[in-house]
Design goal:
alpha/beta, 144 residues, 12% strand
Length: 144
């Protein structure tokens, strides 16, 4: 057994792939949104995505929202830390209005035609990004 890779993971025979959810917390909430959007472009034979769960997703934009201004010094998600993260992880030529950060911004593509699953979003009361999370909810409602 030494030096051999472990056997590939298997899906339990008790799994029901017609009842799947995509979920993510913080920046993973953004990734979960992108995965759900891409999955909505395909017709899967054995897989049905029932919903998206985004827990305090890390959405943002160039505009400073009221919650970002009021909660600027929050210990976990300060605006300085948020700005640094976006600068570090977005493409060099882009800004916080990139579609990965600002899903419904002017630079984002149209998603009204994408078959999106039902969506549950958790918004933290003291999260400086809560206004962006609320905008995300409004955008999802407007786009079906």
């Amino acid at each position: 057994m030494e030096g051999k890779p472990p056997p590939p993971a298997r899906i339990s025979p008790f799994s029901d792939l017609t009842r799947c959810f995509i979920a993510g917390d913080s920046a993973s909430g953004n990734i979960a949104h992108q995965v759900a959007a891409r999955a909505g472009e395909f017709k899967f034979r054995n897989l049905k995505i029932q919903g998206l769960v985004a827990i305090q997703p890390y959405f943002g934009g160039e505009e400073r929202t009221e919650s970002e201004i009021q909660l600027a010094g929050a210990p976990a998600v300060s605006m300085g830390r948020t700005d640094w993260c976006w600068k570090a992880f977005l493409l060099e030529w882009s800004d916080r209005d990139h579609p990965a950060a600002n899903v419904f911004g002017l630079k984002s593509g149209e998603i009204s035609g994408v078959k999106f699953p039902k969506c549950l979003v958790f918004i933290g009361g003291f999260d400086p990004l809560k206004d962006w999370q609320k905008r995300y909810c409004e955008g999802m409602k407007e786009n079906g």
